[in-house]
Amino acid sequence: MRQMTMVGFLQAQNCTTLASAWRHPDARTDFTTAAYYQHIGQVLEAGKFQMGFFDDRLAMPDLYGGNPAEVVANGVRVVKMDPFACLMAMGFGTKYLGIGSTASTTYYEPFDVARRLQTVDLMIGGRAAWNVVTSVNDGEAHNMGRDVHMEHDARYDRADEFMEIVLNCWDSWEDDALVVDKKSGLFAHPDKVHRQEYDGKYLKTHGTFTVPRSPQGHPVVIQAGSSPRGKIFSARWAETVFVAYHDIEEGKRQYKEFKDAIAGHGRDPDKVTVNTIAYPVVGETRTEAEDKMALIESLYKEVDGLSLLSEALNFDFKTKGMDEAFSEQELEGMSGMHAMRNRVMQVIGRNPTVRDFLNVTRRGRTHNAVVGSAKDIADQLEQWFTERACDGFVIAGTHTPGTFEDFVRLVVPELQRRGVYQKEYKGATLRENLGLGLPERGWWK
Ligand SMILES: Cc1cc2nc3c(=O)[nH]c(=O)nc-3n(C[C@H](O)[C@H](O)[C@H](O)COP(=O)(O)O)c2cc1C
User: Fold this and answer.
1) From the CA of 55, how far away is ligand 1's center (Å)?
2) Which tens digit of pLDDT belongs to each residue from 102-121?
3) Is 388 left (phi over 0), alpha (psi -120 to 50) or beta?
4) Domains, the chain, ordered by start
5) CA separation, residue 335 to residues 108, 203, 208, 398 (Å)
């Protein structure tokens, strides 16, 4: 029987995707310690989550107002530690949980990313994944020594080359290349370790990769592009996909379109799981959950929404009045997340204002939170899953570790009872737990 995938949406920072999460009375404040990440990992593992993944961005959302004072004072996603280090801490405190980290194809070098991820995958026994992002804004460009953020579609063209290099690196060592036979003196088969000669439009590399294959071959590739260009990229490369479908009907349509696109690349669509974001707020009773939700909503501040919009769309929202419409030129110039901008324009049907952006995107607030008892939440997740609006869920926290603890304690047993969610891990590696076989060298060509 088909079963759902469960992914924890993790941050190596002071809050969840909701900037307000740190203000929650139950939120832990030791987010700079290994113990914090290990606890969250252990909770997810107790709930048989296939994976947790760390999101990332290479800057604070301080484009807003042109300086960091306001976001620092309000804690609007201002701490962003290295997600790979947090992944390792979590990995050493867990045994079965797959763990992903985000890394940018626009600001890193492919050899470096390939080596870091392959090493991490070895260190945690074949449980690593890479969330491939092309990054979104000038803040990231400035931190990384560039003047401006690259244009949207060109980022994905560069990312295609990046992927070819990374996968060539990971394919460099054949599965049985490493021998380490002291008697014969043979360390590795020279005919099974391959050199790469790559000259692209954006990137080049010439050399031989330095890390052997891992127990799962190489890390699992995750992608979450949602613009037209982003989806083409995702259908080509992703082994697991993250999406943010807004309602079940739209989800069903997009899910089908996306699976067809995967098949169009000659890949098996059943192997690539599509996981949509869900914000569960669960209580012992529906009333308790509604009270919890009221508290969560009360923690939001307008600076959260405005600075996070500025970050995502690469435009300083403080330069506009609340009810002032954006000009064509301003909308065109937003080089961040195009899918977000396009959706607001489509919903509003005229040039949107700042208030329209806040209302439609609900940036900094929950999106379609599922609020209720374990039964209410399981009903909704099961419906999305069985009607094929998704294959699984990226569980996003309203605060940590509370969201994950509540979900694992109350919702997971209900899903397991219904037979739609695993009671035990299927294997030791992330690929085994996602139903992906060992990757063949060159699968992506
Ligand atoms: C669950 C999920 C997680 C994401 N994590 C990140 C992230 O860590 N960093 C990032 O820059 N973008 C992240 N994104 C955004 C996507 O990578 C992508 O930029 C966004 O969906 C807009 O798509 P587009 O660039 O194709 O327009 C995430 C999206 C989703 C749905």
Assistant:
1) 9
2) 999 999 999 999 999 999 99
3) left
4) 5-297+366-434 (3.20.20.30), 301-363 (no CATH)
5) 19, 22, 36, 28
Q: Which helix (H) or strand (E) holds 129?
A: strand 128-133
- Which tokens is 437 given? 């076989």
Task: Locate the ligand 1 atom nearest the alpha carbon of residue 244 and give its number.
Answer: 31
- Going from the Cα of 226 to the center of ligand 1, the distance in angstroms, rounded, reads 8
In short, whether 338's Cβ falls inside 6 Å of ligand 1 is yes
Distance of alpha carbon 398 from alpha carbon 412, whole angstroms: 17
- How do residues 180-239 score in pLDDT, each as one tens digit? 999 999 999 999 999 999 999 999 999 999 999 999 999 999 999 999 999 999 999 999
According to DSSP, the β-strands at 128-133 and 280-282 are: unpaired
* Burial letters 26-35, b for 16+ CB under 10 A, else e: ebbeebeeee
Distance of CA 67 to the CA centre of its chain: 27
For ligand 1, atom 15: residue with the closest CA: 224
Kindly state the helix (H) or strand (E) to which residue 230 belongs, with its residue range: helix 228-237
Residue 206 φ then ψ, to 5° = -140, 115
Cβ–Cβ < 8 Å for 312, 59: no
Q: How far is the CA of 223 from the centre of ligand 1 (A)?
A: 8
| Atom 28, ligand 1: residue with shortest CA distance | 224
Burial of 332 (0-12, 13-18, 19+ CB in 10 A): exposed
C-beta of 394 in contact with ligand 1 (< 6 A):
yes
